[in-house]
Amino acid sequence: MTPSAPPLAQADAGTAGGDPAVSACPQSRLSVLAKRADFLRAARARRQGAAGFLLQARRRAGDEAAQGIRVGYTCSKKIGNAVTRNRAKRRLRAAARQVLPALGRDGWDYVLVGRPGATVDRPFADLVADLQTALARVHAVRERGA
């Protein structure tokens, strides 16, 4: 690791064994989206753009298990080679671990979509702030519509 990459070191801190996509904290309510159908349903729901990524969010239907928060991550080849895509996903996972347990809502699915250049190059603190703002906007839209 190069000395010029402290956001990555900061982003990867706190992962301890097991599934790297969710928090090592046992109180965490995050689980990982694994099925393509779940990603497609989130893509048809609400979207909120941010400088570092795109947030897609949806409230699960009554027939689905509405317990906990589910989160998925995706980065296309537009982001770069495999190393760059994996770094972008690691940074998105770290931001989600930091923000979603506090601001996410039970019964919701969230998908974070990486953006070329921005997800990898944006300072980590800005990614976290972007996610906080995007979540507030996604849930504010729901409040007005209800």
Automatic annotation (TrEMBL):
GO CC annotation: ribonuclease P complex
Keywords from the UniProt entry: Endonuclease, Hydrolase, Nuclease, RNA-binding, tRNA processing
EC number(s) on file: 3.1.26.5
A GO BP annotation: tRNA 5'-leader removal
Coiled coil: none
InterPro entries cross-referenced by the UniProt entry: Ribosomal_Su5_D2-typ_SF, Ribsml_uS5_D2-typ_fold_subgr, RNase_P, RNase_P_CS
Pfam family, any one: Ribonuclease_P
Annotated region described as Disordered, given as residue ranges: 1-22
Homology family: Belongs to the RnpA family.
PANTHER family on file: RIBONUCLEASE P PROTEIN COMPONENT
Full protein name: Ribonuclease P protein component
